[in-house]
Amino acid sequence: TTGPSSDPDSSPTVESVQDNPDGGCHIYRNGYYGSSIDVVEGILEVNIIQMTSIQMTESQAENSLVDFVVTCQGSLPTDVCTVVSDPTCQVSKSVVCDPIVVTDECLLTIRRAFEEPGTYCINITLGDDTSQALASALISVNGGEST
């Protein structure tokens, strides 16, 4: 059947129905279809710009604390995950994920604890609803001091 479209600016819509041996039918429609696309920039890049060991008194020195200062480019993240692995970055020792609120500029400090001295691979992932980006670093923790 052929009939006019409800849109006066478009061409007529054509529908055809054919019998199908399976007992059903196929419907073919020709016409116009419209949709919108939202382009999302996403988090483009993450950089660890500073690693600082937090000095603690001997009575507090159960864990070594390190602050990581992180920047990013693109959209603002809503969560951060830190994966601490062995020096080869193959065997994960701990994973910590936290929601974050970044309102203006993507510059944040992430504090993580290390139970014992050693060399660790750190992966810091910033993410939002549509993207994520990763930065990695190798860190040596020596009883409350890091290099």
Please tell me about this protein's structure.
The chain is mainly beta and 147 residues long. The protein has a domain at 43-141: Immunoglobulin-like. The chain contains no helices and eleven strands. The strands form three sheets. Strands 7-6-9-10-11 form a five-stranded antiparallel β-sheet, with no helix packed on it. The protein is elongated and about 80 Å long. The termini are far apart. The mean pLDDT is 81. Residues 1-12 have a biased composition (Low complexity).
Quick take:
The protein is mainly β. It is 0% helix and 57% strand.
Query: What's the architecture of the domain at 43-141 in CATH terms?
Result: Sandwich
Q: How many beta strands in the DSSP annotation?
A: 11
Order of helices and strands: EEEEEEEEEEE
CATH homologous superfamily caption of the domain at 43-141: C2 domain
Which strand-content bin applies to the residues? over 45%
The CATH topology assignment of the domain at 43-141 is Immunoglobulin-like
Please give the alpha-carbon distance between the first and last residues. Answer: 77 Å
| Text of the CATH class of the domain at 43-141 | Mainly Beta
Task: Average the pLDDT over all residues and give the rounded result.
Answer: 81
Region (Disordered): 1-23
GO molecular function: integrin binding
Organism: Sylvia atricapilla
Biased composition (Low complexity): 1-12
